[in-house]
Write the structure tokens for this entry.
Amino acid sequence: MINKPAILGGTPEFAEEIPMTRPTLANEKEILEQARAVLASGMLTNHEFVRQFEDKCSQYLGVKHTVAVSSCTIGLMLVMKCLDLSGEVLVPSFTFSATVHAIAWNGLKPVFVDCQPDTFNVSVKDIEQAITTKTAALVGVHIFGNPCPGEGIEMMASEHGIPVIYDAAHGFGARYISGNMVGSGGSAEVFSLSPTKVLVAGEGGLVTTNNDDLATKLRLARNYGNTAGYDSPFSGLNGRMTEFNALIGLTNLERIGECLSARSRLASTYQEALAGIPGLRFQQVLPGARSIYKDLAIYVEPKNFGLSRDELGEFLKLENIYTKKYFYPPTHHLSAYTAHTDRSWSLPVTEDLSSRMLCIPLFSHMSLEHVERIAGCIRSAHRHSPEVHRRFLG
Ligand SMILES: *Cc1c(COP(=O)(O)O)cnc(C)c1O
């Protein structure tokens, strides 16, 4: 950006709004043709396309079973139901609300754990310190598509006899340091296919597991818990995926490789273009692991950058660049979890990240030129920060 910033009276860098994210959708014509075939067949839900989609995902992820569901939230709820848990579940507070809601919907008590300042994920140590005799399970989250240290977490958890579930909403296509795909870890992993995620089906979720019994139970659970004889051994719900969502997911899955390469290019372009700006840092990926950069999150340290996270967000909005504060507030501050609790939480890293993290635009079909221009605006915000900061003050 060479012009004067918009906040100081210049023209906005972009004439049209640049959203933080947009779904990248494959082949509209193919989707419409197949949707017609679905309508003609009369089989509208949980049928051939769902089956095909499940098989292709299992192949891609290197996991034995994929159970398609109506959303990631429902998938998480069903996994916890099927594992028949009672007591407390450890969960990072630095996540999206739905991770915690799924715990609460099962009548389980969320116990919030802190995360690491560099990876923004939970570490083995963060979790191990929080384990008590009441701990029934732990939920790991691959924040912004950056895989948790799954191998270490699972080894530690198995010593304590505690099942591990992953909220993999952000993680389709990511890899652990072992080289295994996210999706193959823990008792089960749960993906989201909603429009802000990397693999999109409109709405939908995928539960992946290597456990045969759990997969069978999940298939019952998503269909009210009905057995062939219409008995219900436990209370299920309707968590089925429609054929329409499955066919959108399938078509997008065919192009997932391209999307992941594009994201990786976009993320490294951002990182190179923003390198060296004081007060900014990025999420660290563990050596050997692969992040899919579901979001490009920057940590804004106000003293050295010259502006706070909120001020930078406002500055960019005036340039027509839209950003989001993820995750703010952190989940342990949500009214649902402050109203009825007898505990207070000390989560200093979470509090800090939550107040300083800004997610900037990144989606698979975004152009490198836009990335360069957005990075230019962020550089300009730093360069003009004394004047811009005074403008915010008054
Ligand atoms: C989006 C999201 C969910 C919820 O996914 P749905 O498919 O919309 O239910 C859960 N967890 C995280 C971390 C998410 O970002």
